[in-house]
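Final report, Chapter 2: Outcomes

The project's central promise was a pipeline that accepts a single protein chain and returns its three-dimensional structure in a standardized token representation, suitable for archiving and comparison. That pipeline is now operational. To close this chapter, we reproduce one record exactly as it appears in the project archive, with the input sequence first and the structure output second.
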Amino acid sequence: MSKKLNEKNKNIIDFFSSYLKINNLVHLEDEDSRNSRLKGKRLGILNGSSWISIWSNYFAKKYLPGVNTISIGNDAIQFNFMKAYYDRKKCPPEENIKIFIRNARELEKLARVDAILITCSTMNRSYLKIKNAITIPVVQIDLPMMEKAVHCDGKVLIIATHRPTVESSKILLNETALRMKKNISYTGVLLEKAWEFLSKGDIIKHNEIIASAIHKKVKKEKLGCVVLAQLSMSLFTFSYPDALKEFGVPIYDSGQLGFKYMVKVLENINK
């Protein structure tokens, strides 16, 4: 390495090095795993946009050591469902669901994955059609979180930062409660300012806005738990690792619960 490498260039190299430690290059060989039942398994990750893949791969590495992840993420998917929402059209659009089905088939056929995880909350409406289109297990990342929420003692607070996600999250919570034969009540908060800070790369401010909203809600009404509606919100727990102590209620996010759930799914697949 050049002795004249300046600090700016070193920071750039460090950035790309760190990125590649999370988003691995595509490879064929099995990864080392402490869990022999995960070794050699492949997980297809179906993202709603390309930028979120670093979240998916981070949590996959944390909770699924040794699992080879193969991701598909298309910014046009998010662009299209955002435009549909603000044009007051069906969200997510049917063409988005068709693309997700095609992507799922590609993951099964080309990458030979053992299971697929849908990480986009807005696109959770595609789950059943994808399930019927492929022969391997498919999981919607918010489902484990919603199952915990319907069992909590009290009102569920759903927090979203991205407006198109709100309706899909409410529908999934209601569907989960109906399937599990639970009566629930819930309220919601939309924090678009937090999304603005996320888009600028200010995750600390993003987390502070969410924390402030939770503090305000718990002072006004009795809550049983809080649900963070999007995978992008899962970094909140790094700012507030002891949610119960800080807010007085449990806070559920899909990054932790969704990928932890996939451990059981992949362990039960025989190869």
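Archive annotation: Residues 143-253 form a domain with the Rossmann fold fold (CATH 3.40.50.1860).
This record, like all others produced under the grant, will remain available to the consortium after the project formally closes.
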